[in-house]
Amino acid sequence: MNQAQNQNSGTTVVQQTIVQQPTIRKYKCPYCGGLVEGKPAETGLQTMTCPNCGGRLEESDAVSQPAPQVVQTVQTQPAPAPQTYTRAPEQSYYPRQTFGDKLKSCFGTLIAFAIIGVIAFGGFKFYEWYDSRHQYNQPYYDDGYYDNGYDDRPEQHDPVYVPALGRDVPWDREYDSYYDRQTDCYFFLNTDMDPPIWQYWFEGVSSDYGDYGWLEWDAKENRWYVQIRENKWEPLPDGKGTGLWHFD
Q1: Which has more confidence, 144 or 194?
Q2: Rounded to whole angstroms, how far apart are CA atoms 24 and 16?
Q3: Burial class of residue 57 in the structure, from the number of CB atoms within 10 Å of its CB (0-12 exposed, 13-18 middle, 19+ buried)
Q4: d(Cα 67, Cα 38) in Å, to the nearest integer?
Q5: pTM as predicted
Q6: CA–CA separation, 63 vs 47, rounded Å?
């Protein structure tokens, strides 16, 4: 039987040889029962005797037994010792950046930012120019407001005649109400009420109540009511309503 073993560091070959010995002939002695090797007879004849008891052995008493196998091992081509390789330290193949190269890189970055800034500024100016042109092409109302598809102008009313004052009072678009300059009064018809009711703001009276102070005239009670907070009205104190006018 041959056996071969391979290793990364070398090759080792082990050879085994099995030697078969000649078959041993033994005899079973019919006299003593022993298993013995035959011994030539002392008479010199081709006969065999038992070495134990001297009994005569016949060929019919022979017993064949195979001899044990002898294994011889031969080793050839001893494996060489593994070799150790030392890797040289890696070297950088990129040249070190010089100060001049760094300076050039910095200038390149600044130039790139400058170009981006110019493009952004140009886009902003173009949008500003386009927006102004677009607005100039919008049709105007007579009062100077643009027609942008819906009417976003403050509510406009014709002047209203006030019998108590004996004159027309114009609409104030800034405060979205009528305004009488002589009595310093703002007023409008609150159509959210059912029935609608006139509400008044007299400077010097209403302004005493901060963010509230709107006035309403109650014709049934023949007196003024003032708003003191949200959804809260109370009678105006006596003396505060002197000189105030209202619609009947």
Answers
A1: 194
A2: 24
A3: buried
A4: 16
A5: 0.40
A6: 16
